[in-house]
Amino acid sequence: MTEQAAPKGNSRKGQVPTQLNMRVFEDDRQRLEQLQAVTGLVSLSEILRYCLKFTADHHPLSPSPAGDITPALIHDIAGLTAILKAFVTAATSHMDKGSQQYRFFVTGLLLHIGDPLEVCALLAEHLPDRGIVLRYSYITHLQYEFAVVCLKQHGISLNVRFLEEAEQKIDLGRKAFRFYLDDLFEIYADQVNRYRGPGEYADFVTRLRRYATSMLHTSSVVGRELEEGQGDA
Predict the structure, then answer these.
(1) CA distances (Å), 97 to each of 82, 100, 211, 229, in order?
(2) From residue 145, how far is each of 72, 83, 88, 151, 159 by CA, in Å?
(3) Could you say which DSSP state residue 179 is in?
(4) How far is it, in rounded angstroms, from Cα 170 to Cα 176?
(5) CA Rg, the chain, in Å?
(6) What is the pLDDT of residue 28?
(7) Cβ of 55: how many Cβ atoms within 10 Å?
(8) DSSP letter at 167?
(9) Is the CB of residue 62 less than 8 Å from the CB of residue 47?
C-alpha cells in the first residue's frame, strides 16, 4: 500500500481532521479479500483496524534504544528468567530436544510469555510433583544471584527452602533450594502487574521473550512454528 495524505486540518468544529488515505495495490487487495472472507468484516477500514490490533497484540514493537532501560527492569527480567529457566529445565528434562513435544512446549511458552497464568499452566502439565530445585553453579553464577535477589524481594525465605546434602542427588556441597510453581506464579504476576504503564507492558514482554528465546536456544524451525501459531491465534 502507498500513503496519500488528505488535506491538512485539525479536529476543531467545521474543519477537516487530518487523516491518511491508503491506495490499495492488487496484491494487497487479494490479501484483504482473504481476510474479509475469514473475518466476515465488511469495510476496508474495519479490516485495517483488525490488522492493526492483531499486529499490536501478537507483534509488540521492539523496545526503544533510548533511555527506557532501567536497572530495575534489567534486574527484574534477569531474576525472573533465571527462575523460569529452572522450571523449564525440570519440565523438559524428559523431552527429546528435537521432538515435536519439545517444539510444541517451546512454541506455547514463547506465545504466552506475557501471561503468567498460561505459562504456569503449561509448566504444570510437565513438572514433577515435588517442584524444582534451583542450584548454584559457577557457570550460572550471575543468573543465580539475580534469582536469589528476586526471591528475597518477594519474601521467600531461602533458609526454609534449603536442601541438605542428604536430599541432593547431584552437585553435593553446592547451594540448592526447592521451589514450587506457586512461587513462580507469584513473582511472575507481580512483575507483569508492575509494568502496566503506557508502553511498559510491550517493552517488558518483548525483552522477556528475547531472553527466553536465548535461554531455550530455539532453532529457526521453532521460530517458524511460533509465527504460524501466532497467525492461527
Answers:
(1) 20, 8, 19, 19
(2) 15, 11, 18, 10, 15
(3) E
(4) 10
(5) 23
(6) 74
(7) 11
(8) G
(9) no
Task: Give the residue from 12, 17, 131 showing the smallest Cα distance to 83.
Answer: 131
AA identity, residue 1: M
**Domain residue spans of the chain:** 2-58, 71-232
pTM: 0.61
Residue 119's Cβ-count burial label (10 Å; 0-12, 13-18, 19+) is buried
- Dihedral sign for Cα 56, 62, 66, 71, please: positive
pLDDT band at 118; cut points 50, 70, 90? very high
- Reported as type and span, the H/E element at residue 55 is helix 44-58
Q: Quick one: cell of 222? A: 521453532
User: What pLDDT, in 10s, does the model give residues 182-195?
Assistant: 999 999 999 999 99
C-alpha cell at 25: 495495490
Cell readout for 165 is: 546434602
